[in-house]
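User: Hey, my collaborator sent me this sequence without any context and asked if I could get a structure. I don't really work with proteins. Can you help?
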Amino acid sequence: MSDNVARGTMLGIAGQAWHLLTAFLLYAFLARRLGPVLFGQWRVVLSVLMWFELFVNSGIASLAAKSISETPEKRVDLAHAAYAVQLLVGLSVFGAIVLGAGWVARLLSNPGLAPLLRVAALDIPVYSALLVTSAVVLGLKRFERQAVAWVVYATAKAAAIAVLVAAGFSVAGALIGNALSSVAGLAVVIVPAARGGRGLAPRAGGLALGMLVASVPFLVLSLLDGLGQNVGLWTVSSVMGNAALVGLYSAAVAIAEVPVFLFLGLNRVILPAVASAGAEGDRPLARHYVTQAVRLALIVTVLGVALIAANGRQVIALIYSTSYLGAFLPLVVLMIAAVGQTVVATCTQVLMAQNRARLALGVLAGALALQVALLGVLAPRFGILGAAAATASSALVASACEALVLRGSLGSRPVATLARCVVAGAVVAVALAYASPSPLAVVPAFALAAVAYLAVLGILREFDALDVASVKNALWKR
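Assistant: No problem. I've predicted the 3D structure and written it out in structure-token form, which is a compact way to encode the shape of the chain:
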């Protein structure tokens, strides 16, 4: 990768890593404070909110980052148009949640969720502003500012939620704290609309309409992806009829989301990077970005599977308490699903950058149909483990399909990377299982395991001189 893109990727992933750290500190507090039933309720409401937030998280925001990176000379008009459309969409989604909360709650077989969904909707208008402003900053390749904003957002979220829940406001307090954190993030990243001279309003208005239409593929794609991420939990909530099982599955999903969430930092960078390289006609550079992104996704996610398979029970006890140990087997299966989901998310961003939206949509729609069918068969029969297996199967099929579609850009290198990662992960898993660290010792044990994993990959000749140079330049910017 180029130094700027490599540094942007590192900063993006570092910001997501901080977000994950604060999130799991928060989960450790909430799981004990609320208990499995209320914790599961909070996670279900949050999953519905996150799906609705895709309306503001993917369409205009993704298109703004792509368009500004491809045509920086139009950045002022594009920013104006993006802000205007995002405001309209954000307010519309807010109204939709408020009006449809009762129907969604009944669909999930829990009418008591309706008032909580309306409280959760308070986050939509501010979060939509945070996202579009962050996208403008990314389009301008100001990666440091974007990363700092998400660090502030994550820190404010953990602090606000913890304070309100500790004060006795329970799940509703957690949802209000979630909304307050978006205000903090927006305050850091906000870029005031610049003046563009006479005739700006007509130009921006025309661009806004064009962006609204052009954002539809991004939006549909993200809605499909969001359904794939959440339909397992929603099925458990609707079919199981057991609030404790919903809590256990929610706990497993939260941990398994780590790789996917972590790589949002990479995916925010890879879309404008590939689009920019394509616009400049530099196909070798674009192919290099694609290959490196998929390799990095495989290296991290396979390590995650190894760590959880070996010491998942200790992780659950550390984060949630021993009351949640029933989530272990679903968690292992969902971590395998995360390998496929992360590769799919990365390849999808590449397809969108290459203007191959129809292909990306087809793969995700097919995978979702397969997942729903498998959930209908496996969840009623095998419970939360069946739901996890359905999710993993569809994710792996989708990742294989997208890798096949991008074989011209990827080549054979990611296949070799996957093979080496499986070998290195097996070595690490066996060592950790033998060591069997206590819950408190699992964090330093995982750190040592990660070093050992990278060392084994080095012995297997996974890394070349270009990989090392990219990391050095990203860490020590001149």
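In plain terms: The two ends are 16 Å apart (CA to CA). You can pass these tokens on to your collaborator as they are.
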